[in-house]
Amino acid sequence: MKEDILKIGGEGGSVTLFKYNELYFFSTNEAALFDLLSEEDRKGINFSSNSKNFKNFDLALKSMMEKYNIFRLFPIFIHEDYKKEMLKKFNEFELENDDNFRGGGEWKDILYSN
Asked: Which among 24, 69, 93, 101 could disulfide-bond with 54, CB atoms 3.0 to 4.6 Å apart, if both were Cys?
């Protein structure tokens, strides 16, 4: 059974980290871009993709964070069971990017909500 863990959005699409059976993946959905392109320009473009599989959440999140700057994107959903770990990662990001990071309000709202 598929279980969504984290969904973040940005211009043109979203990235979702999920668990399927005992493996973790992340996928992209760039459907918003689809609407902006003509039928001819859409040819040959894949508007969604899946990562390789990962044995645990930490490896999947690390890979996702290496590929996408997730804390500069908009959080849409965080599974309650993973909020504590995501808060830890967010705080680390904030400390490392103190001078250049002027956002995070949306992340704080969702991470501290019940």
From this structure: 24
Two structure tokens written together for 1: 């059974």
Per the CB < 8 A criterion, the answer to whether 45 and 35 are in contact is no
What is the percent of the chain with per-residue pLDDT over 70, rounded to a whole number? 75
Q: Who's near 42: CB < 8 A, 6+ residues apart?
A: 34
Q: Are 31 and 46 in contact, with CB atoms under 8 Å apart?
A: no
| β 2-10/74-78 pair status | antiparallel
Please, which pLDDT band fits residue 43 given cuts at 50, 70 and 90? Answer: low
CA–CA distance, 87 with 56 (Å, rounded to integer): 18
pTM of the entire predicted model = 0.78
CB 6 within 8 A of CB 86: yes
Distance CA 75, CA 21 (A): 24
At 89, the pLDDT band (50, 70, 90 cuts) reads: very high
